[in-house]
């Protein structure tokens, strides 16, 4: 393994960390409805837990209402129960075959809780990035110890890893600020 391999590996893993963080932010709901909110909800389907999107069609009726159309007749009650028991704070209502999921308006206290949640998820992402930096630094030090690279090359590698970490953490901070602004917008 060379310094270029270490750097490339760290960049790829940090990019994946940012993508995972974006996925986590996507799950945190704001005042508007979007079908992705229900992605994390699983339904009991003949003894196994599957995502709602695998047993029903999830679409938007309007800006504040999600519709869930089960593909099988008997799944309506199970889907409704799964949505109600999820930690999303949603209360679905059945209308024949269609399940309507209205999005409640966010009050000030709930907005503050959501911003705290965003900061916590952001801090977890930053910790993951710092761990990746540590791994890259350890690999560079190992190469120096084995006399495969010089100490100057090791120092450059450590500096590159720090710059990459700083850029990635700045991107995470930017995403946190954007999501907080979205949540706090009335």
TrEMBL record:
Subcellular compartments: Cytoplasm
Taxon lineage: Bacteria, Pseudomonadati, Pseudomonadota, Betaproteobacteria, Burkholderiales
UniProt entry keywords in alphabetical sequence: Coiled coil, Cytoplasm, Protein biosynthesis
Task performed by this protein: Responsible for the release of ribosomes from messenger RNA at the termination of protein biosynthesis. May increase the efficiency of translation by recycling ribosomes from one round of translation to another.
Name of the protein in its database record: Ribosome-recycling factor
Coiled coil region boundaries: 126-153
Pfam family, one: RRF
Primary gene name: frr
Species this chain originates from: Roseateles oligotrophus
Source taxon at top rank: Bacteria
Major localization listed first in the record, in broad terms: cytoplasm
Family assignment from sequence similarity: Belongs to the RRF family.
Positions of the Ribosome recycling factor domain: 21-184
């Amino acid at each position: 393994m060379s310094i270029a391999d270490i750097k490339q590996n760290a960049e790829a893993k940090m990019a994946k960390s940012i993508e995972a963080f974006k996925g986590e932010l996507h799950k945190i709901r704001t005042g508007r409805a979007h079908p992705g909110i229900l992605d994390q909800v699983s339904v009991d389907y003949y003894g196994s837990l599957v995502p709602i999107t695998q047993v029903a069609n999830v679409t938007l009726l309007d800006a504040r209402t999600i519709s869930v159309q089960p593909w099988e007749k008997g799944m309506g009650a199970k889907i409704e129960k799964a949505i109600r028991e999820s930690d999303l704070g949603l209360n679905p209502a059945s209308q024949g075959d269609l399940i309507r999921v209205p999005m409640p308006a966010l009050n000030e206290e709930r907005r503050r809780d959501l911003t705290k949640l965003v900061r916590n998820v952001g801090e977890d992402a930053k910790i993951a990035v710092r761990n990746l930096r540590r791994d890259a630094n350890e690999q560079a030090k190992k190469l120096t110890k084995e006399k495969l690279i010089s100490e100057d090359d090791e120092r450059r590698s450590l500096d590159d890893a720090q710059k990459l970490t700083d850029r990635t953490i700045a991107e995470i901070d930017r995403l946190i600020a954007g999501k907080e602004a979205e949540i706090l917008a009335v």
